[in-house]
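Task card 7
Instruction: Convert sequence to structure tokens.
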Amino acid sequence: YSVHFGAKTAIGQWVTAASTAVVPADEWTHIAGTFDGITGDCRLYINGLEVATHSGRPGSVLKPEQGPVTLGVRDGLSYYRGRLDDVRILRGVLGPEAVAELSQRP
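Output:
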């Protein structure tokens, strides 16, 4: 599977980081995505390593009325076939060190 992480901002802009790396099937993998509304940066991490980044418009924010959070689907057409575990949505932006620490398999 290839991995994409995106956020729709309050101005209606999609900011998406897409990995060219393929996540192996039948193997535990930690995936994290971060969005920084101040800088507009969207980052994607796999197993604690940054694999993709995309810069959007600085000063963008996310608002609940922008729509639901979806996991395991892209454009309503491509669905992930597997299991998701320990899903977290945090307030604030995690830095690379925090993402790396979270990626350590329990």
